[in-house]
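Notebook, p. 212. Picked up where the previous page left off. The plan for this session was modest: take the two constructs that came back from the sequencing core last week, fold each one, and keep the raw output in the notebook itself so nobody has to go hunting through shared drives later. Recording the first one now, exactly as returned: residue sequence, then the structure token string.
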Amino acid sequence: MASEDGGGGFGWGLVVGGVIGFVAGAYLASGPGRDQVDTLRTRTIELSSGAAQKARGAVNPGHPIGRAIQEGITAAKRRRVELESEGRMGSAAPAPTAPAMDAGEET
């Protein structure tokens, strides 16, 4: 049971908090926040391009990680060829069939 004298306090607090948050967000987005966003965007682009260059360097076949990646790719291709050739040879045998069901059986 809610008391008659304080039942709407939460709702008003929620509304007032939302308005204050909206005003603060609008101020930060148009004022000093705009510079922060631009700085953050520039920094993110710098970091992402640097990380991309490091990744390209690691994939280089002269790098230990690059050699491991190339060996993995080679092994995967070799295994794929093996599986494909087994699939062709195995397809010559007739495929197993499911047992026939009687008309009175339920599934």
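Okay, moving on. Second construct, recorded in the same format:
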Amino acid sequence: MSKARTIRFTDQLDSMVDEYTDKNGLKVNQLVNIAVKKFISERNTIKLEPIEASDSAWEKGIKKSFKKHRKAMDELA
């Protein structure tokens, strides 16, 4: 048994959905079912790449974080 649901797409995503369904001969409901099933059943992780401790980007990021969140850091200390 299926259940009716309402979804809203942004304008940009809506046009992409229309284009995709037209090219692939799908209905929007079919596309949404396929996409949701795939999203839920597959692992959704972000793969992070470690950076070297000597990397200047690391140092800049740390300094920026401390500067931006100085009050919070002081309260934690």
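Notes on construct two before I forget. Residues 11-41 form one domain.
Flagging for discussion at group meeting.
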